[in-house]
Design goal:
The protein is α/β, with parallel strands linked by helices. The protein contains ten helices and eight strands.
Length: 229
């Protein structure tokens, strides 16, 4: 049976703490000429929900066309920062090893369910050479919807179409560091794996209903067992 592993990015594979705030502040000033006065809570959110909240909080129109303008500014800022990203963040312990190990496993497909825009997902992973292990074409990205479970649905559908197989929920693993990651996977009946490398503890992730909770990705054999059990 084919297995589809869907990775979150921020605080699951890489840590760019503080960068989101900086990029949104720059984008807001660029698009509407205002200083950042309200910062949304980021963990587990999609870029569409964050952008909409940010515009609303600054008394700006927040319909899709205005959200798209903010997206364009964020993408430009992220792409311009590409050369400096290796110095602005880090790959989390074990992330390169588990991605490479899974990439070498027959029957395993790796992609993303991330709140990031596609271009930002690419540059964040490429900074640490992690991009070569995942299929960006079938990912679920934060530009798609305010709701994270829609991203899981999109990734499962695109993977099934591309590979000519139906990825049943039991063959899909959603892995991330927040209860929202877990809830998105559980919404579709997938296997869910929490990683306590972000702002939520092992206990909190367990309470959110994760099938497995790991303290981090450092123990490659343990992570492999959790993902391919």
């Amino acid at each position: 049976m084919e297995t589809l592993v869907l990775w979150d990015i921020d605080l699951t594979l890489v840590d760019y703490t503080g960068l989101g705030r900086q990029w949104y502040a720059e984008a807001l000033t660029s698009v509407v000429g205002k200083e950042l006065a309200h910062l949304p809570v980021f963990p587990g959110r999609t870029e569409r929900s964050l952008a909409r909240e940010l515009l609303r909080a600054h008394d700006e129109p927040h319909e899709d066309e205005h959200v798209e303008r903010l997206f364009a500014a964020l993408e430009a800022i992220g792409l311009a920062a590409r050369p400096s990203l290796p110095t602005l963040g880090r790959a989390l312990a074990g992330a390169p090893e588990i991605l490479a190990t899974l990439a070498g496993r027959e029957g395993v497909v790796q992609s993303l369910v991330t709140g990031n825009l596609p271009a930002l997902a690419d540059v964040k992973l490429a900074a640490f050479d992690l991009d070569r292990h995942v299929d960006f074409e079938i990912g679920g990205y934060g530009s798609l919807s305010d709701h994270r479970h829609d991203l899981v649905e999109a990734a499962m559908a695109q993977a099934s179409t591309k590979h000519g197989v139906t990825f049943a929920p039991a063959s899909v693993v959603v892995i991330g560091d927040t209860p929202m990651d877990i809830a998105a996977g559980r919404h579709h009946g997938t296997v869910t794996v929490g990683v306590a490398t972000g702002r939520h503890t092992v206990d909190q992730l367990a309470e959110s209903g994760a099938d497995v909770v790991l303290p981090d990705l450092a123990d490659t054999p343990a992570v492999l067992t959790a993902l391919l059990r």
